[in-house]
Structure formats: structure tokens, C-alpha cells
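stuck on this fold:
=====
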Amino acid sequence: MKKSINLNVLFAEYLVRSLYGIGVRDVVISPGSRSTPLVIAFHNFNKIKKHVVIDERSNAFYALGIAAASKKPVAIVTTSGSAVAELYPAIIEAFYKHIPLIICTADRPERLVDTGSNQTINQKNIYANHIKYFLDTGIIKPNLTYFKNFNLQLNKAFSVSLQANRGPFHLNCRFDKPLEKSIPSHNVASKTVNSIKKIIPLRSPKNETIGPEKLKKIIAVIKELSKSKKTILYVGHESIEQSYHSCVASIAKLLDAPIFADGLSGYRLSNIDGENVIINSSAFLRNRDFIKFFDAEIIIQFGNAPTSNILLYFLENSKAKKILINEFGEIKDPSLTFTNLLESSPQQFLRLLKGEKRKINNCIDPEWLKMIYLLESSAQKLKNQIIGKAEFPFEGRIVKELFTAIPAGSNVMISNSIPPRDVDSFCDLMNKKIQLYHNRGTSGIDGIISTAAGLYEANKKPTFLLIGDLSFLHDTNGLWLLNKYKIPLVIILVNNGGGSIFEMLPVVKQKIDFNKYYKVHPEANFGKIVRAFNGNYILIKSWNHFRNNLLKPSNIFKVLEIKSSSKNSLSLRKKFWDSVISGTREIIDEYSNR
């Protein structure tokens, strides 16, 4: 018996079932005609939540935020043509952050490419340099052989992009007309249709074992650690999960080593004992004598390279052996001075370290350790003095006020440019289990609001965003998203008159129109922009005003604009750095005279 079916929709229904089977619970859809089969299939599948976002760039960043906070793959659906290109910035970010996005792009049949057919471009592997896997449907055929063969390819795509080397996977779906379920395209045997509906992908179990060569390298490093008198652990900004932090804390305890915690790692804000945590290294390392007298013998780096150029300089010029521990085997060392790369997760390394612990006799130099902690406490004391006296609206104190006030367990999104550097310099230790997020994979300023919206959507926790004026303008479409889905995001908008980060770079001294080419004042009325999207706008006038409005309940998103002077803030930062260099010199001199 034959059955009239729309082949595109039959394929889309198979795909949606498959996506659910591998953990997809959210799909973000941008409107378009060619993607109609996918929209129909998702609409009729109630176990996956549908989000509709008109702007594809905002769509992809929203999906990125949901995936980052939920730790689950998120699907994206878009139509053909330039809409596909709009997704690219978020895909690049997902690639470098190992966030699993499944990009389902609708496309025309290949015969229509380069024929003048409307809304048709060459979409084949368009994201080639920034995805983990690409799969093209080709001509979808109404037979069981096609679907079984495609299912094998889909299994491989899922295995690579979700397990072996997590990251974005691009599926290009070539749909010929008709696109609607109500318009049949083929007559197919009922038995074949029923068999196709039973096909599901089979995920391969994740391989948690460590091969003999990798194991040998890790054991050799552990033996070296047993002889090191001066070991430092550095936690970079990719390592934001509590379980990750707990592992690093256990490793540090076993080795009796201090932990240099990047401000964006989230380590300072997690539920971890902060006794051996160093948070002011980017301040006291400005004294170059530190390297001479306090250099380590071994430095172990977890996560990404430092946010701070000062710490980067230290790592580059240190004579210590530098061990990178990265589960994907990636080099996260722009100085290329590392001596060993271990393809291992912190959990795997910890298990092996515990196994070898009975053979290890810690021989950390107590005087060296004592001096590092003295430098840290001295820098922290000086920072508290500067922050405590800082008048409104010093940008460094905004960071301190924000993290002090917000509830434990909140989401905090940090934009790029100045905010991450102020977080690194002025975020203190707080046992609040705050989940810290950022788009530091490529450090772009686009899609920040949309990403923060996705964080809230994933876990419905109080969500705060610290953002600059230019980044805010870059993603005003994100405000549309906040309004549509009634997301009560709290945005702290630091308006310092444009690209203030460039004032910290040598280009500011060049004979060039700095304000025209770099500063680029936004010249925007943020209040009117916020109100146009039905948000709540407040111009903050003082620290008390900030505290009183930060946590005030609201059912809609709100923007707290703080107009700051970038030059005054830079002056206070320099004052802090100079005071630390001066205040810690005595400690360094005492140690150097021994």
C-alpha cells in the first residue's frame, strides 16, 4: 500500500526525534520559508521547547547562552541565504568554548546554486574553520537505504561534536519544494514510512580511559611535582564549573601549592576554601622583581591563558616548567613557552595524583610559600583601601558592589573589553556559588545581551550582565528578545564614552585622531532605546542609588546606566597598581636578602 507523504517533513521529523534522543531540549528558530519542514517538525514535537528570534545573530547567541548554562546541546534553525552567515559569530565563540550547538540550516537543492535562484548561496561547509563536524543531506531520497546511511553519518556527527571534541555541528538540509506537510511530494510504501519512523541514532559511550602514552606522560609529570619546591597552579577563564574547581582545590591541597585564580574562572566566587587562593597576582606581579625572587619551579595551567597581560608576561618570562592540562589537548599558551601538554581533565589528573600520592613527599619551600601569601594579603589590604575610598562611579568599585550585593547562586555575564579586566583586578573571594559566564572564546563584543538572556532561560536564576556602552549598542536586538520572553535580566551598563580600553594601549599616544578612530563615542540615548523595548531604565547617581536599585524586584528587564569617566577610572587603577608595587617592595626586599 502506498502512502502520500511530504518527504521534507518526513526527514525533518526523523531529525527532530534524533535530536531529542541525544539530549536536545531547546531549539531557537528564526522565521523563513525554506526552513518550513523543520519548523513543522519541531512544532509537532512537544518535548523540545521552541524559541523564536527574528534576528539570526541574536538567535545564535541566545542558543549559546542556553547551551552554556544548561550543559546540553541546543538546536538552531534558520532559512537559507545570508541568514546562514548571520549565525557565524556565535558559532565561532561556541567552537573555541566547546559549546555544543547543532546548526540546522535550510538550503535549496544544489542544482540551484549559482543560477540566480532567489536567496541561494553556497552554504556547503560555510563554517568550515569553526565547526567540529559538517553534514549535508544531499538529495533526500524516499527510501530506507538513504535514511539508514544518513543515520550512520548522523551518529558519527553526534559522537564527534558531543563527546570526543565538543563543539558546534553544522547540518545543511537541502529541501526542494513543496515544503509544507499538507502538500505531498511522494507516494511511498507504508511499510517504508513506518520503518523510517523507527530509525534513531545510537550514541557511542564516551571513552573515559587514558591511553598508555598519555598515562606515561602524566605519571612522569607527577613524579616531577614530587621534587618541586615551588609549584603554582593557575586556573584560567574556561574553568567555570564547581566540579572543576573542586578538583583543582584537591590537587592544590595534595601538592601544598597556591592557586592563582583568574577573575573570569569563577573560582573566586565558588564554594571553595580560599585559604591558598591568590587573586591579586596581576597587581603584585607588576613588580618585575617578583620573577627574579619568587619564580616557581613548576607552573600547572588549567583552562585558558590569563586575562591579565601582567600574568601573561610572568608566564612567558618565568623559568619554571609549564604544564598545560587540557582535556582536548589544546595549546592555551600564546607565549608558546610551555614544556608539557597533558591531554587530561582535572578529574583524571586528580585520580592519578591520588594514586601516586603515597610515592610523593611534598617538599614545598615554606618560606617561599609564606612570602607569596604575604604579598597577596598586602595587595588585598591596599585594594580594600582604594576601593573603600573610591568615589562614585569608579568602574573597579562597580565590580565590588555588584558581587557583594547579588544573591548566592546567581548567573553573572561579563561583557568584553574593560569589564573582564576589572573583574580580574577587583573581584574578591566570595563563597556564593555564583555562576560566572563570558564570551572570551574570541572576546567579541557582539551578542552579549542575547547570550545573557539564554543563561536566564536555561536555569531561571537571577541573572546580571555587566556591559559597556559599545557592546550594548552592538546587541540592541537582544532587548527585543528580553521583551518578547519577559526575561528579567538586570543590565549594569557602564557608559564611559566609547572604546575606553584603547586608552590603556600605546595607540593613545600616536599622532592620530584617537577619538575618531578608537574612542568612538556612542552618542546614543540609552534611556530611549531601553524604553522602546518596554524595559525599565534607571540612571544611577550614587553607590547607595546603585545598591537600592540593583536588587529591586522587577518582572521586566532593567538597565542601570552608570556614566563614568574612563580617565578617572584609569587614574584610580594606576594608583592601586602603584601602591601595590610600593607596598610589596619591602616584602620582596626581605626575601631577596635571605
Summary: The longest helix spans residues 566-592. The chain has a mean pLDDT of 92. The chain has three domains: 2-197, 212-375, 394-564. DSSP finds 23 helices and 20 strands in the chain.
